[in-house]
Amino acid sequence: MARGELPTEDAVTRLAALPFEDLGFARVDHHRALRGGPEVVYGPGKTPAEAASIVAALLAQDASPVLVTKATAGHAEAVRQVAPGARWHPRSGMLVCRAADPDGSRAGVVGVVCAGTGDLPVAEEAWVTAEAFGCRVDTLVDVGVAGAHRLFAEAGRLQAAGVLVVVAGMEGALPSLVAGMVAAPVVAVPTSVGYGAAFEGLAALLGMLNSCAVGVSVVNIDNGFGAGALAARILRTQTHGATGTPGEPDDGAGP
N or C: which end of the chain has fewer CB within 10 A? Predict the structure, then answer.
């Protein structure tokens, strides 16, 4: 409005929807965009029409990125009625309705490392999320500990990343191995891939929580979105400081 790009009436309308907009079945938290990113739509439990209505509300406030996670084909079809350019990734269920502009000021790269092809749905959720938040992403697939030489061959790419998301099921050993090779923070993601004693990802989760390597944090089972979003925040903090403003020192007052 100060730059003359938005009429006063439109600005008042936009502000009236803050901090949230009540759709009856959902209260869309527009205020969250001021704290590091807009609300993300979790698909399961929502009808396609409900997901589309929430997406429309976010798009109307110029939120970026606008994502639906664990989306079905039905969600994708309905959302494309309000966001024709939305990109759906069937393997991971990620639906990108609007991506953030690539942040060229970020010097780092998010590395996404996937233990096995069976872990790809979760790994894809992580890298699609990081890209939607404006990050550059480098992906390494099928480099699990059963053939560690495949990982060692990519040591240079691992060490070039500013932050790493490491996705693994079974016993969940890969994040410890990766963290022992790099100085960057590692976000470990256990997946529900594995036979009976893997307990649908619980074995991998406990293994990652008990990592002997330094600098490993762990998100919930199959939570590729959470890992990708966290990696994007870590990379932004490395580049901008906690305030998110390029060139400003971190005064400790950031979110």
Answer: C
Strands of 94-98's sheet, edge to edge? Answer: 41-42, 66-69, 94-98, 87-89
**CA nearest to 96, candidates 67, 123, 119:** 67
Which domains does the chain show, CATH number per domain?
A: 8-98 (no CATH), 110-240 (3.40.50.1970)
Whole-number pLDDT of residue 58 = 86
**6-10, 17-21, 74-78, 179-183: which range is least confident on average?**
17-21
Q: For the chain, how many helices (H) and strands (E)?
A: 9, 11
Phi-psi region of 2 (alpha: psi -120 to 50; beta: other; left: phi over 0): alpha
Among 214, 215, 219, smallest CA distance to 204 is for 219
CB-based burial of residue 16 (10 Å sphere; 0-12 exposed, 13-18 middle, 19+ buried)?
exposed
Q: Which amino acid is at 64?
A: S
Q: What radius of gyration, in Å, describes the C-alpha atoms of the chain?
A: 19
DSSP helix/strand/coil, 185? coil
Asked if the model's pLDDT at residue 186 lies above 90, the reply is yes
User: CB–CB of 217/187 below 8 Å?
Assistant: yes
Cα 125 to Cα 7, 76, 228: the distances in Å are 38, 15, 8
